[in-house]
């Protein structure tokens, strides 16, 4: 069964952070903690992430991607690349370079956002 886009995005965020608390994931995704708990539970039920106790806070847990989660995310990325590559091949080389540069800028912005916890979340 294909992974829904929102779950794939969350799994990619967890992979990028190494491990994360529910509250930090909620802040990055601009959602409430209960909503994020539900999303993480779905990934956990599928065997894509694990929860471990946070040694610094007995009330909190840390979320980490599993080997199966890495395999799934790799497959999702390969599927997406296979879908878009034929379209990119239609672009002239100069346009592909511009697009690649823009993707690099967007990636830096998203990486910064993903590692900046504590922003306001929607309730």
From TrEMBL:
Coiled coil: none annotated. SUPFAM superfamilies: Winged helix' DNA-binding domain (SSF46785). It holds the Pfam family MarR. InterPro entries: HTH-type_Bedaq_tolerance, HTH_MarR-typ, WH-like_DNA-bd_sf, WH_DNA-bd_sf. GO terms for molecular function: DNA-binding transcription factor activity. Residues 1-111 form the HTH marR-type domain. This is MarR family transcriptional regulator. It comes from Mycobacterium tuberculosis.
